[in-house]
Structures are given as C-alpha cells and as structure tokens.
Amino acid sequence: MDEPRYRRATAADLAAIVTMLADDVLGASRESASPAREDCYREAFAEIDADPNQFLCVVEDGQQIVGTLQLTFIPGLSRGGSKRGQIEAVRIASDRRGGKLGEAMFAWAISECRARGCSLVQLTTDKARTDAHRFYDRLGFEPTHIGYKRKI
Fold first, then answer.
1. Calpha distance 99→21 (Å, rounded)
2. Strand 54-61 and strand 118-123: pairing?
3. Count of beta carbons in the 10 Å neighbourhood of residue 86
4. DSSP readout, 99-113?
5. Helix (H/G/I), strand (E/B), else coil: 37
6. Per the database record, which ranges form the N-acetyltransferase domain (predicted)?
7. DSSP β-bridge partners for residue 75
8. Which domains does the chain possess?
9. Closest among 31, 22, 98, 17 to 60, alpha carbons compared
C-alpha cells in the first residue's frame, strides 16, 4: 500500500463506510447496507457533515476506501477548559487488516486532535473486542474509566 490518503467523507462514500461497519461480528448485528436503511444513514451523515466538531474520515489507497473513523472534538470545562478528541467507529477493510493501517490511522487521528487543540484523546470499545483492547494498549491508550450505556 502506498501512503494512505485521509479525507473528509462525502455522501458518495456511505456505502463503503457502512459495508466496513457491518463487516465484523458485532457490526453485522447492528448495521445493514440494505436499501431500507439508506435514509437513516444519509440523515446521520448530513448531521455529522454539518457539525464543525465532527470529522468523518475515510482512508484511501488509490481509489479504494480501505478505512474509516469518526473524530468528535468535545469542548469542555473540565481539565481546565480543555478539549477532548473522541475516536469512534474505527474500521479497516477486511482484506487490509493486519498490515499496520490501523496504527497509521491512529497516528493521523491523534495528530488531527492535537492540531484542533485537544489535550486528551479518548475512545470507547466494546468489552468483547479483546483484540482491539490489545491494539489500543499497544498504542499507549489506558483503560482508565468505566463506561455505561443505556438504550432508549
């Protein structure tokens, strides 16, 4: 793979992004590339794209989208009024996993957070993603908090 190219996603990238989101055990139960869901994804994309504190990224190798992640820049009063960078929905095309693309994507994301004035980068990960936990540990992330969710 040549040097990956990082860019803001466009609506034309939605099918590739959703395909990657659905291409694992957990994602397959939550995501669907079916035509019945297209409007939901388009509406969500429009909201993300309109928010200056959101950056939905796609990673390209040539003309092929091989990765995606979403950055959210969260202003806050805690930590002396510092901003946090939240990394979510990280996916790599299945045929590109294991080739260090994830490390490159995180280096890029952390650099973007730094450039936006963030003093902290955080992420959440499902408890079942033990391989991802080892990856995040290796990158220097620490499991310092317990997260809670409630479906509504």
1. 19
2. unpaired
3. 18
4. SSHHHHHHHHHHHHH
5. helix
6. 4-152
7. 83
8. 5-138 (3.40.630.30)
9. 17
